[in-house]
Design goal:
about 375 residues; alpha/beta; four-stranded antiparallel β-sheet; about 15% strand; globular; binds pyridoxal-5'-phosphate
Length: about 375
């Protein structure tokens, strides 16, 4: 029999929220952590000491600067935001996705993206009471199916379309000309999510201002500051001034403002780390591709999408964990991801451990 509290909860909590599972993070204790697209490198000692000195004089008894002025200016410079565009900061880019969806939600309005894509577009659409429409990518190479996207936009008239560039979890860049066609045909806003910008030379940032419906989203998470929770939306004032109205006051805390500003004033350290990750990505991809029956998809991000021999994704995922390496198992997440695994690129030593473990599994080890 249902207790009183269960009856109350199921009466009042929206059915679409009740049917969700909470965002799950795999336990990683004691494992080589290659599951979350983090930068594996910590800071050089001297930098760490200077940062701690800065935190020593950071007052936590006061609310933060509500508009994070100094940090915004630092980010505009570090991320080459074009003249005339403004920025809006979020507690991770996840919060920016939520601010956009909250501002654009309404009865029968939809959020569109491609599938397989970044799961938070779908989740946040549901949080905000919007419909989510995911247009399948081309099954062979995960490229954008332009006619399908154009047709879906015509049919569903999405308030907003999110495209991750490079895409997660497929690691590839969509064709730039196809994206431009999508932006031109979109009835509403188009968000180009450049979370993996440090690992590619391609970007829509310089094209801001060319289209009235284009904004670009970035994060500092993948360049090495995931723990700070800081994302950035860049685009025309007309859009961002509206999104700013749904931002909770003081959403970027004092420690994040001080630490990110400090870190970005030493951007060369992070640029060198991302250069190493890019080089390791090429080595790892080439070595994994030599394993029997494994396909490695092209990557412009800090992770690889792999297809194992049929039915082997889960046994290999478990086998890797037994050997001390944690990656992401994508088998079952979407029909196009059957037999797929997603390791993040780590340090050379971590990548060696991943390679050795995969070689044992590919050779038929348990
Ligand atoms: C495409 C994409 N966008 C956004 C995010 C979220 O980034 P943040 O850490 O800034 O919330 C991720 C995280 O994995 C991502 O893959």
């Amino acid at each position: 029999m249902k207790s009183d509290i269960d009856t109350l909860v199921s009466h009042w909590v929206r059915p679409e929220i009740r049917s969700l599972a909470p965002y799950h993070v795999q336990p990683a204790s004691g494992l080589i952590k290659l599951d979350a697209m983090e930068n594996p490198y910590t800071w050089p000692e001297g930098l760490r000491d200077a940062w701690v000195e800065l935190l020593r004089i950071t007052d936590v008894n006061r609310y933060p600067d509500p508009s994070a002025q100094a940090l915004s200016e630092r980010l505009i410079e570090a991320m080459d935001v074009p003249e005339g565009m403004r920025v809006l900061l979020g507690n991770g880019s996840d919060e920016l996705i939520q601010m956009i969806a909250m501002s654009l939600s309404g009865p029968s309005r939809s959020v569109m993206s491609v599938d397989p894509g970044f799961v938070m577009y779908r989740m946040i659409a549901i949080f905000c009471g919007m419909r989510y429409v995911g247009v399948p990518l081309s099954p062979d190479d995960f490229s954008l199916d332009l006619p399908a996207v154009l047709q879906a936009m015509e049919e569903h008239q999405p308030a907003v379309l999110f495209l991750a560039y490079p895409n997660n979890p497929t690691a590839n860049l969509f064709d730039e000309r196809a994206i431009v066609e999508v932006i031109r045909a979109a009835p509403g806003l188009v968000v180009i999510d450049e979370a993996y910008a440090p690992f590619t030379d391609a970007s829509f940032m310089p094209r801001l201002g060319e289209f009235d419906n284009l904004v670009v989203m970035r994060t500092v998470s993948k360049m090495g500051l995931a723990g700070l929770r800081l994302g950035l939306l860049a685009g025309p004032t007309a859009w961002l001034d509206e999104f700013d109205k749904v931002r909770l006051p003081y959403n970027i805390n004092v420690l994040t403002q001080a630490s990110a500003d400090f870190a970005l004033s030493h951007k060369a350290v992070f640029d060198e780390q991302t250069r190493l990750i890019r080089a390791e990505r090429e080595r790892l991809a080439a070595d994994i591709a030599l394993l029997n029956g494994v396909k490695v998809f092209p990557s412009q991000a800090n992770f690889l999408l792999l297809r194992t021999p049929r039915g082997q994704a889960t046994p290999w995922f478990n086998g890797l964990r037994q050997r001390g390496v944690l990656i992401k198992n994508l088998d079952g997440a979407h029909p196009l991801l059957t037999d797929c695994l997603r390791p993040t690129v780590g340090t050379p030593l971590e990548n060696d451990a991943l390679l050795a473990a995969m070689a044992e599994l590919a050779a038929g080890g348990p």
